[in-house]
Fold Fis family transcriptional regulator.
Amino acid sequence: MIYSATKWMIRRLFMKIRVLAIAPYPGLKDVLLDVAGQDEAIQMDVEVADLHEAVPLVQHAQRQGYDMIVSRGGTATLIREHVKVPVVDIPVSGYDILRVLTLIKNTHAKVAIIGFPSICRGVAEVSSLLGLDIPSFAVEHESEVTHALEQAFEFGAEIVLGDMVTIRNAQAMGYRGILITSGKESVADMLGEVHRVYEVHSKGQEKVRFYQQLLDTDARGIVVMDEARRIQYVNRTVCHILRQAEEALLGQNMMLSSPALANVIKQAGESRQSSETEHYVHLFDEQYKVSVIPRETEGRAEYLVYLESLAKWRSERRFEAFIPSRLATFAQLAGSSPTLQKTVHRAKKFAESDRNIWISGERGSGKLKFAQAIHSASQRQQEGFYIISCDEMTEEQMYRLVFGTAQAPGLLQGGYAGTLYLNRADRLSPQAQESILQLLRGSRNFRCIASSSIAMNKLAQRGDYHPDLIYKIGELHLSVPPLREHLEDLEELIRGLIAEHNSQSGKQIVGMRETVLERLTQYDWPGNLPEFESLIQEMLMMTKGHYTEWEEVQDVWERLVQHAGTSGTAAVYAQIDLSGTYEEIEERILWQVLQEEGMNQSKACKRLGINRSTLWRKMNKMLKNKT
Ligand SMILES: Nc1ncnc2c1ncn2[C@@H]1O[C@H](COP(=O)(O)OP(=O)(O)OP(=O)(O)O)[C@@H](O)[C@H]1O
């Protein structure tokens, strides 16, 4: 408090109070300049204007940084409605009344006074002291003046005393009016009031600045919008989140500033809840919780919106979920073959609903890509897309992710919403299945999309999979075809890969020769798109001219065929039975590779990408299981 008082004193020592005076009649200008000229703390400019003429002048003055405006009577009242800076009245003092009464003292004409109640009281007081009988007609508003004048003239008045509005109307009606002018004493009183108001106002401004600072340093974004969703207030955090300057946002419709946020706020409005509602939105790769609070200020509806970043939670990496920076859309799925288009059509239909989906398909067939496209086309597109790699999470990790810990809330407690992608959902342990099941039963914040390379019905037969979970996630089922079932799409996929390669390498490849393409379509692609992509990328690296020539890539091709034909990973994928638990499948792969390598452990290790001790450990376990 001491600090702000001192600060105020220092300011007062060095700065003058800038005042614009609006004089409703010319004579007041000189009095104002004369009296204000004697006050060193005041710098006053004067304009002569009455009522509506004054409005543009004061609006301009406000922009020019005047601290205060002074005026008189009806003009002061009108000005107050149009500016935010304080407006001080030039009063009509007892001296002013005494002067005008002295002026009319000896007249034989009947006199009446019309004015605001305070003036009428002053006149009644002074006239009774002087022994004069002057009836008064009090008005509360400028619009009542004509009626008051009519009453006064009916009463027999020939001269009316009043302010500028009264005098002008009386003259227009053909009567005489005498203006009660403000003298030096009134102007001096007004200047005293200017000092008092300035002090109070400055302290108020200090407070406003203090609260402004508090709001600006709040980590939450704070927005106030009117009923038409025009932005009335934003704190600095919002400017940072939306990457726009305050000036650009204020007065702007939210739909133009941030359509994503506007949609969420619209949803909140449409939910017709009068209390706070919570939503989630994805802005510039960040997930935010949006709380919308409808309220009313001075009879007008308003929305108070809080934006809370969830980045803190994510950066703590409490769980193995993440938000990919760019998600695929249906338009980005290459392939116009009837087979793929049938799948796309089905997926688009699924995107319209919010029901859970089970996607099955061979490894690398594009399940994740389809899940992303569904999310991007769904009503949850503004929310997060979270991938849970089921084969990489322990039961405990899954439990903590769903139910939280003492330190951090889990998915079930809220704070996240969107699409939950369970990658390789068939690898969930029974315990982890239970956690996911409880999450889906207890929260409506997520749509779940699970993926597996095993068909859903096979999973149901496995016995270690919770039937309720299959039932809950498998509300809708999408089967993504392997690449060999839509080989017509290879050329389109190649075009995309060439474009990407050219942009990275600076080459100008325009296509592949027929001889190369023919071979590509004669292959089964058991490793699906990842296998295809890596081969094409290698071929493009070998390409020197505009076309990929067979001679340039023959070696690459033969290596692939040899690998696949003899013992390659691709062949293993094609022949291995993928039913059963992860351990059982792993066992089968191990045996297959060992047999193909003539039980040569070094060769098997090399192909499997593991060291000898790991192979030993696994073989021992296998033997134990068999005995
Ligand atoms: N229709 C498509 N157009 C272009 N690229 C695609 C398409 N579908 C998949 N891909 C690409 O193929 C690769 C594998 O796709 P994705 O990860 O979606 O397969 P997946 O079936 O989910 O794999 P996994 O079973 O290993 O989890 C990715 O590089 C992806 O970008």
